[in-house]
Amino acid sequence: MANLRAGLIGLGMMGRHHARVLGSLDGVDLVAVADPGGDPHGVSGGRPVLGSVEELIEAGIDYCMVAVPTVYHEQVGLALAAAGVHALVEKPLAQDTPGATKLAQAFADAGLVGAVGHIERYNPALQQARARLEAGELGDVYQVTTRRQGPFPARIADVGVVKDLGTHDIDLTAWVTQQTYTSVSARTAYKSGREHEDLVAVVASLSKGTVANHLVNWLSPLKERVTVITGERGTFIADTLTADLTFYANGEIATTWDAIAKFRGVSEGDVVRYAIPKPEPLRVEHEMFRDAVLGKEGADIVTMEQGLTTVRVAEACIESAQTKKTVDLT
């Protein structure tokens, strides 16, 4: 069977990583790359560097990785759908809900595989957390808290922190808990002098009663990517920077030494950091999309419909911050 012919459009900070993976992916030939600005990171590997999505389509590709700025996702994605080319689009799916709706509908109408690059779903720590939650190891899930913060990224200019970083947490929380968002209340701040927000705090309700909290900013020198899942049997902490998942069991042994109890708590349970395989999430994401294009069973992709839902929740967070009211998503 001939290899799939893949293309890549967008050769910026994320595009260079996609080029590395696509250039070494089994069953796939990266035949050309495209970016109106050329190849600033030198990732083409001798392949043609084209200037537009139309030129990329003319190169005869089966599918395309879209890593252009968010504001161009709709335009590029619709061109690919019209040409019958499957596409994996970097998150968020589009700049706004109308654009995301058009993309999801266009790929569905054309019978094409369309997916969104919500890479955190493929992080080993969160893959393990979801599997263990599904197996009932934590019992009922009471709360999911995420912290995602780091330095200001000068490369992001077309959206704020909610749609750029916050969409990671919205998607992973819905996916890990297998619930949908029913309401959100959010507050934002503008501290870097730009048009878009650079800090957000969210309180949300999920469809099975779980409460979610998201703290996201571009204002911290500390880079943090943590998801805390609290349930009736204890707490999972997933650190997606190190791909570690740690379980803190509810306390069963009383702490009778008063001096320790003051800072450790009145009871202790087991603490386990799981030893888990740690494949690169980006490679797994591309492997899953390749398999989906090939029609293989078990290809776990983030569909454009799911990506559209995430954009809707993100926009509800922005609306809530602007109106200072809780937004009902039901």
Automatic annotation (TrEMBL):
Gene3D superfamilies: Dihydrodipicolinate Reductase, domain 2 (3.30.360.10), NAD(P)-binding Rossmann-like Domain (3.40.50.720). Residues 127-236 form the GFO/IDH/MocA-like oxidoreductase domain. It comes from the Bacteria. InterPro entries: Gfo/Idh/MocA-like_OxRdtase_N, Gfo/Idh/MocA_Oxidoreductases, GFO_IDH_MocA-like_dom, NAD(P)-bd_dom_sf. Residues 5-118 form the Gfo/Idh/MocA-like oxidoreductase N-terminal domain. SUPFAM superfamilies: Glyceraldehyde-3-phosphate dehydrogenase-like, C-terminal domain, NAD(P)-binding Rossmann-fold domains. Pfam families: GFO_IDH_MocA, GFO_IDH_MocA_C3. Keywords: NAD. One of its GO terms (molecular function) is nucleotide binding. PANTHER family: BILIVERDIN REDUCTASE A. This is Predicted dehydrogenase. It comes from Pedococcus cremeus.
